[in-house]
Amino acid sequence: GRLAELLARGDAGAVLALFDELATRHDELATRHDELTTQRDELATQRDELTEKLRERDELIAQYKRLIYARSSEKLTAEELGQLVMAYGGSAEAAAAENPKVPVPEQADAEPEEQPPPAEKKKRRKHRGRTPIPPNIKRVETTVPVPEGERCCNACGHEMAHFRYVEHSTLHYEPAKLENHVEMREVLVCRTPGCKCDAATAERATPPKVKTRAGASLLALLLEGKCDDALPINRQQDQLSRLGLEIPVDTLYGWWRYATDLLLPVSDALFGYILDDPCYVGIDDTGIDVLDRKSKGGKYRGHFWCFKGSRKMVAFMFTRTWSADEIAPWIHAIPPDIAIQVDDYAGYSRKLENPEGEQKVLVPPERRLGCMMHVRRRFYAALKLGDKRAAVPMGIFKKIYKIEEQARGMSPEERLALRTKHSLPLLDEIDKWIEEHEGKVGNTGKLAEAIRYAKNQREYIRRCFSDGRYEIDNGAVERQIREPALGRKNFYFTGSAPAARRLAGAYTLVQTCRLLGISTRDYLIDVMEKLEGGWPMRRLTELLPHNWAAARGLVVDAG
Questions:
Q1: Looking at the predicted structure, is the pLDDT value of residue 500 above 90?
Q2: Which of 29, 37, 71, 422 makes the best surface tag, with the fewest CB within 10 Å?
């Protein structure tokens, strides 16, 4: 209206002034709009940051609740008792009882009884039948004859002839036993009056092969019990006591020390053989407490290092600290064209002096393989704490491991082709998802930690898929580390650094025998007797488990 009035009056100056005023007002509104837009973006960013902080807070609360408010009472509620009864095959009525009894299972291993055929035959899946009892298990037969009053035919009255036996097998366990083998050496003396001749003593019929009162079989029992069954020496003392042998625990430790010192050259030779693997060497570690009066609290944290290559052999070594300097000589001993599969321990990326006197990264990036299990584990932790966004990469990991399951048993060439066709596109999906979410998950949450770790390990993970001989994770090494970790829960600590070194050597031989599927007991007994008898050092490799088995015609798959 004002503009029309000014135009009607023909006041050009007033019209121009009005236009200037409107233009200024427009600029002010545009500036205000830009300010509000900036404030909106800042508020949205703050909102996202606060949302992520709340998510991180919820993760911490969930962790603390599991630590603080986890159920500690061992008493079961009535509902839990009922569920437990039903889980073990009890009826609903038994589960609802005020004081339910433990259900008695059906006789699953009972002999099948002859029954008349059913009216209608139903298709049933063919049962494999019972697992046959190995022929090496001692067979004790008891014959049960037909009573005298039933041995004649009830139709014609004539005596019936023997036809066959119906067998019913029951496995019994006989406790182990100890035997004291005593060799009585005759001594002759001359009783002639005045004769001063020397007494005559018979020579040993079986010269001792082990210089302790414990035979090689008992020493093997100590080693196998501790390194395969995670039984500390004091528990083995209890076992021997139940068999009637009361012996001081210090004596048992002395026998253990003798046996492990005797076997240490063989375990060291096996360690060198593993480092010379033709494909790759996987490395991981676990802690072990070591007693030391000079340390704070009377002990310090040492480390067992596990080394395993593509063959079915494993070696353990001990270091006093977690420093990369202590493991550097072992890593430098790995041939330069062999890959090394490790986790994200910072020591592997340290620059140290190599045997040529050069400052080089301990595990060179171009030889380094990553571990998919470590990457997956962090996303799983985020999902476990309620971050549903981690479900997407977890689903991709599941597909990758299904492909690995299909590749099991294939040749390296077939395995590589399968990975190239199916696994690499899945890795691309993970990388794309990470790039899309990297800036949206904050800095301190579990998902943010998982994304950072995956990005840092990307090059090393992809290298695992570049050769069909490589594994995509270090799972084989981690499975071997479970044995020392389980033992650590039972015997808590080792007495000294030399004792830890001996324990690592014993683990090396016992777990390698287990991987190869040979008798640990037979191997240890034979090797200890040979070593004590003065085995030539130049023939030490003949005592390595796989060579020992081959010399006896045992078929083993050494990988």
A1: yes
A2: 71
What pLDDT does residue 110 have?
Answer: 41
Q: Round to whole Å and give the CA distance between 324 and 85.
A: 54
Please give the share of the chain, as a percent, with pLDDT higher than 90. Answer: 42
Q: Are residues 268 and 359 in the same domain?
A: yes
Task: Give 268-308 as a DSSP string.
Answer: HHHHHHHHT-SSEEEEEEEEEEEE-TTSGGGEEEEEEEEEE
Same domain, 308 and 399: no
Mean pLDDT estimate for the chain: 84
Those residues with Cβ within 8 angstroms of residue 559's Cβ, 6 or more apart along the chain or in another chain = 310, 311, 312, 313
CA 7 to chain centre: 92
Give residue 20's domain range.
1-29
> Which has the closest alpha carbon to 100: 110, 108, 109, 90?
90
Which residue, 194, 195, 260, is CA-closest to 222?
A: 260
pLDDT-wise least confident of 236-245, 340-349, 462-471? 236-245
**Type of residue at 117:** P
Question: 428 and 375 in one domain?
Answer: yes
Q: 432 lies in a domain?
A: yes
Give the number of other Cβ atoms within 10 Å of residue 432's Cβ: 10
- Of the candidates 117, 80, 116, 75, the one whose C-alpha atom is nearest the C-alpha of residue 95 is 80
CA 477, CA 269: separation in Å to the nearest integer? 19
User: Based on the domain organization, do 275 and 415 belong to the same domain?
Assistant: no
DSSP letter, residue 195: -
Residue 502 falls inside a structural domain? yes
CB contact set of 540 (below 8 Å; sequence gap of 6+)? 265, 266, 269
Domain check: are 357 and 485 in the same one?
yes
Residues 349 and 375 in one domain: no
Domain annotation covers residue 253 = no
Co-location of 350 and 281 in the same domain: yes
**Whether the Cβ atoms of residue 227 and residue 507 lie closer than 8 Å to each other:** yes
Torsion-angle region of residue 129: left (phi > 0), alpha (psi -120 to 50) or beta? left
Tally the domains of the chain. Answer: 3
Of the two residues 499 and 202, the one the predictor is more confident about is: 499
Give the pair of three-digit tokens for residue 139. Answer: 């067979």
The verdict on 352 and 498 lying in the same domain is yes
Tokens 């200024």 map to which residue?
A: 24
Query: Are the C-beta atoms of 273 and 310 separated by less than 8 Å?
Result: no
Q: Which of 1-5, 135-139, 295-299 has the lowest mean pLDDT?
A: 1-5
Note whether residue 65 is domain-resident.
Answer: no
Q: What is the pLDDT of residues 429-452, one digit of tens each?
A: 999 999 998 888 777 788 989 999
Distances (CA, A) of 68 to 56, 63, 71, 269, 342: 18, 9, 9, 48, 34
What does the pLDDT look like over 69-105, one tens digit per residue?
655 444 556 776 667 566 656 677 776 776 666 554 5
